[in-house]
Amino acid sequence: MKRAARGFTLIEVMIAITIMGVLAVICWRALDSVASTDQRLRQADAETSTAMRVLQQFQRDIEMRADDALMNGAVRPADQPARLLPPSLTSERHPDGGFTLEITRSVGSDGLQWQRVRWWRQGSTLWRASGAPSDHYPLPAPEPTRGLMVARDVQRFEVRAWQPGVGWAMLPSQGEVLPATGLELRLGLRDGRGPLSYRRVLAL
């Protein structure tokens, strides 16, 4: 005599569905965590790439600054009464705490033309503007309205100069100074992880 096939009870079906639901939630949370981590890593990589571009462009501008002998004091120094920075660099501190650094740099492979490049922070945005190249003074001034945005969410943009025997000096300097032998750029950005700080030291 054959025994009748026995099916699943309602309780067994509900338990199976519950287990499947729990597994689905666990898998969904795991996938969501992976996606969130990937998004954060991509954002962090983008912020790091932005910072590296800023540091490299700033370094290039400094390295290509006009020869001090050729400048012959043509650019009005902003550091008074003595000259901490070379003639090709001028700095200015604004009443709102903003900082501007202007660099007179050579243009082209022959180095027979120069242009004025200005770096400044406005709010939380870092800008860079350059004037038209020229082979004679006065050099055209950079136009801020045609500046390029180089970084967003900037918390800090500061440049200090190394004064022999004294140490790092904030720009612009005041009082009697010695010619600087180095520059330090401090760049602070902010992303989803919080504040990020970058620093680069350049020889003058």
From TrEMBL:
Pfam families: N_methyl. Coiled coil: none annotated. Keywords: Cell inner membrane, Cell membrane, Membrane, Methylation, Transmembrane, Transmembrane helix. It is a single-pass membrane protein. The keyword Ribosomal protein does not apply. One of its GO terms (biological process) is protein secretion by the type II secretion system. The keyword Lyase does not apply. The chain crosses the membrane at residues 7-31. It comes from the Bacteria. It is found in: Cell inner membrane. InterPro entries: N_methyl_site (IPR012902), Pilin-like (IPR045584), T2SS_protein_J (IPR051621). GO terms for cellular component: plasma membrane. PROSITE patterns: PROKAR_NTER_METHYL. PANTHER family: TYPE II SECRETION SYSTEM PROTEIN J, TYPE II SECRETION SYSTEM PROTEIN J-RELATED. This is Prepilin-type N-terminal cleavage/methylation domain-containing protein.
